[in-house]
Amino acid sequence: MSDVAAIDRLVEKHNALKKEIGSVIVGQHKVIDQILLSIYTGGHSLLIGVPGLAKTLMVNTIAQALGLDFKRIQFTPDLMPSDILGSEVLDQNRNFKFIKGPIFSNIILADEINRTPPKTQAALLEAMQERAVTIAGHRYKLDLPYFVLATQNPIEQEGTYPLPEAQLDRFMFAIELEYPSVEEEIQVVKNTTSNNSYTITPQFSANEMLQVQDLVRRIPVPDNVIEYAVKLVNKTRPNLDTASEYVKQYLDWGAGPRASQNLILGAKANAAISGKYSPDIEDVHAVAKGILKHRIIKNYKAEAEGISEEDIIDRLL
Question: Cα–Cα distance between 164 and 26 in angstroms, integer?
């Protein structure tokens, strides 16, 4: 199958997938699109939202619709790295045997990731970057495709451990969930207070998902689009001479090179699901907020004046 035909087929399958997810999840179209874009590119997503917005249900539904193995890890203050990665135990013959932890799955839901100490948060770093974990000197490869979808509660900051910048940078998208509209909430209440149940039909297999990721990587990108993405990321760095006064005034730290890579991968995937065979600057704009928002660090002046990360990115765009 040619790449053009493969993209046309991806558009069909993406629409069927959205329809399948929509049978359970009401609204949240932008959120679902960004999660799927990160999955099509092999990236990870951080979902930020108040309790009760169906973050866990959404990830579970997406995993079922993609036909992938799914495991949920509830992050708590007493969770240890071995509870996630697995550990070596002595068997009956007094030989060490490795018991795999829940991280060995296709989709990991790291629920309330900021409720666990940094030592346990860091247990995910190697898995997210290398798709492998090292236990007692042995390296174990994870099954592909592999995604971490983490959730974080923006309120109740007591007893939480903010994610360090290195970990935040591993997430392709930081996605904020908003309250549903009145119409959507009425539909949610109708669906969840009756005996209605929905059976999700998988739209992809693990192998098909790997093919989609490979297809996205093969999509050609014009040089001017790559240049635009890199210059956009450079504009966020207040320590550069080329930075605007606005950025120097309100930002302490800008995005790193991984942001440029993710902008291009996200733009490719966004173009593909829109039926385009090559991304343009509009596709970079479409993914810019979700990719840059968690990679720029505001200073106290921005905080005092109520300027958000979105305001700064809007100004740069």
Answer: 32
